[in-house]
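Record copied across here:
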Amino acid sequence: MKDKKIDGLTHLGSGETKYIFDYDPNLLEAFANKHPENDYFVRFNCPEFTSLCPMTGQPDFATIYINYIPAEKLVESKSLKLYLFSFRNHGDFHEDVVNVIMKDLINLLQPKYIEVFGEFTPRGGISIYPYANFGQPGTRWENFAEQRLLDYGKRMF
């Protein structure tokens, strides 16, 4: 079965995949959620994420977990893959990486709720696991985000 083109999507079904090695949020693409009236989670796991230490330039490796409850839009997975790959030569601290990914996805999707968790491999004998989340202000998702953040903190210690 041939892929149908969806308006606004340029990566999916385009044939050759072009990888960008420098951070580029413009790689992200979205498409319409056919079920915006439903509340449901979408989860992405990227077990081969790499970025660079901003001080040493050495590679940092992580699994990035993205969970969100969509509103009107969904992120297209190939564009997300290309976007995450674009961090390969990007130097940022682990905490910054997680927050940048979350903010870029908020900007693209305006989700009801989103959380991004980075499970970075040890460097110098220390693992760093930053977590960031967001719930739409003035909705039940704002309270949900606060509770998830508090629950995350409890799980870690």
